[in-house]
Amino acid sequence: MPEFRFEPVVMPPTATKLRAEVRAFLDEEKAKGTFVPTVGAMVAADPAFSARLGAQGYLGMTWPKEYGGHERSALERYIVVEELLAAGSPVMAHWIADRQSGPQILKHGADRVKKMILPEIAAGRCFFAIGMSEPDTGSDLASVKTRAVPVEGGFRVTGRKVWTSYAHMAHYVIALVRTGGRPEGRHVGLTQLIVDMKSPGIEVRPIINVYGSHEFNEVTFDDVFVPEDMSVGGIGNGWAMVTSELAFERSGPDRFMSTYALLVEAFREIGESPNASEAAELGRLVAHLATLRRMSSSIAGMLNEGKSPVTEAALVKDLGTTFEQSIPEITRRLLPLEPRGGGNGGYDDLQQLAQLQAPCYSIRGGTREILRGMIARGLGLR
Amino acid sequence: MSSETEDTGVRDLMLRSLDRIVEEKAENAAQAADGKPGFPTALWAALEEAGMTALGEENDGDLGLGNAAALIERTAYHTLPVPLAETILARRLLARASIEIPDGALSVAPPSANRDGRAAGVPWAGSVVGVVVATGPDMIGLLDARAASVPGFNMAGEPRETIDHGRAKVIASARLADAPGVVEAEGALVRAVQMSGAMSRVLEHCLTWANDRIQFGRPIARFQAIQHLMAELAAEAAAGSASALMAVEAMAERGDRLSAAIAKARAGEAAGRVCAIAHEVFGAMGFTQEHTLHYATRRLWSWRNEFGSEVQWQAEIGRTIAAGGADNLWATLTAHG
Description:
The structure holds 2 protein chains of 2 kinds. By secondary structure, chain A is of the alpha+beta class. Chain A has helices at residues 15-31, 47-56, 74-86, 92-108, 111-122, 238-250, 260-270, 276-304, 310-334, 347-361, 368-378, and strands spanning 128-131, 147-151, 154-161, 172-178, 190-196, 202-208, 214-227, 231-232. Chain A has 3 domains: 15-126, Acyl-CoA dehydrogenase/oxidase, N-terminal domain (Butyryl-Coa Dehydrogenase, subunit A, domain 1); 130-237, Butyryl-CoA Dehydrogenase, subunit A, domain 2; 251-378, Butyryl-CoA Dehydrogenase, subunit A, domain 3, CATH 1.20.140.10. Helix content of chain A is 45%, strand content 14%. A 4-stranded mixed sheet of chain A has the order 1-4-5-8. In chain A, helix 1 packs parallel to helix 3 and helix 4 runs antiparallel to helix 5. Chain A starts with 14 loop residues before the first helix and ends with a helix. Chain B is α+β, with helices and mostly antiparallel strands.
């Protein structure tokens, strides 16, 4: 019977020291006024902050030194990542590059490309966007229509990508394109190409989201040239690349800590002597959070051992996004909000921002419904 | 964990041996014992012979707790009607208080139902050789309650009896700091581990059923509505089991009460959802005496209430974190890796 066990990971001996170092760094940044802790650190971007993280050695942590990495373990990276999120720091500029694009390029990229790009990511100077969705392609990812036509020395790419988060800050986008087969050919004939955002023929248009913020973009490719060696994993292997990426993308603490800062502020507002129902509601959230940390770090351990726990990752994202969405709904029952238009970064502001952001948690990176379908497949039901 | 390999080898052997005992001697034990007084003497003897009833008191850095927990989880998976979890729990408590451990099946009284000269809801009180009771703020006692118990049952038809302290025989008693708190937390941990085992049994029942049951010309497993329910069931069961596993380690390493609270709260919540989904997936068939699903679901409904329901433990977690101050939440969560 399929059963999902989340065995303990043995944290490296360096863990305690590393955690203390990251905290000291973040305290210093906060003292300098770099950031005010917020919900959805995943949407706050600060390229200068990313560059300082790079200088600290906190990006590209697990990669070989020859590519600018630091040859540390996935678990050490896990510690850094969760500390950055717990502090509510603005990590979004480098997030995709460090979390998934860099590891993909390291594993499947051409050597020239690795030497050119990876050290820049690790230095916090090079950012990536993900070009998967299109106007007619969301959950049904295999239906992409953006085409790459072979030409002398590479490809010409034409098409349109949407919901491309932070394309306006990115130096590259990894675009899933069709290099063969008909769109009905489904999973065959797809390729991932690394496209330089400075290439002629690319246009980036902002799409403003529901709370008035510019995170999304529409990216149009008009006969954009991409050198031959800029594919990830070779021509026609796009589908395998996309699916293997997902275990990295779906299981991290960024899938359950988006509203952590609000939980902390709720504890602060309620104070040191909560009544019975306040204590139970907040305690329930802490029990969920502690369990999710266990499951997520256990997956980091599996990834460290070279396993590909795709179903487990889907399961953690499903539970994790449900949890982070529930925090504003529960705290607003405990601490009724009379909006004052604050601007003080305190409970009221976080509560409102969290409510506005919450719908996206279970959409980005694979909708809840897609994930449940994947779990069902893992259970042998489809 | 230290000695991981050696430990796992011993554990696998033990679990296989338990599976064999169940297959040979206890296929219908849960049904036979359901709501009936008495003690499964033959089954207990088989477990005793296999060396499974003398776990719990090892003083070896609690490596033994991992093995004991794996065994408890497996007996729960098999819905085995024996006080093995209670015996292991009692032995741990007695060892800690330096009370000599008697041979045979033992039990533990839940502290919250121990008042006015009576201890209610005591598993198997009338048939075990000794019951561990928190008799004071810093005292535990070992009672022989066989002649002092009024029979009763929990929702799963497992014996839960009421002891009249005045009529019970005190075998021993000794100091144990914060006795009611320790008994409650250890009991909560054991019930969380049992819930993990029973939830895995429910998941197995549901997978088999969904793949076998044909409606509208196809197995109901092919319907997206069922698939999504099952995904949720599997996720909840996995979370409950992860929290229990985490607490076993934390308890073994450092007697971490907060981790036991988290496990009972999380596994208890998961159990509620798991049972609801399972019965939804099963339709009327799962609502009969005839099908064996209810031996697992009725146990889950009972166990989530015993040794503190999830809301009591959630409140304790909330009070603990609040008292430490909002800014220490993260330090508390990450204190041990």
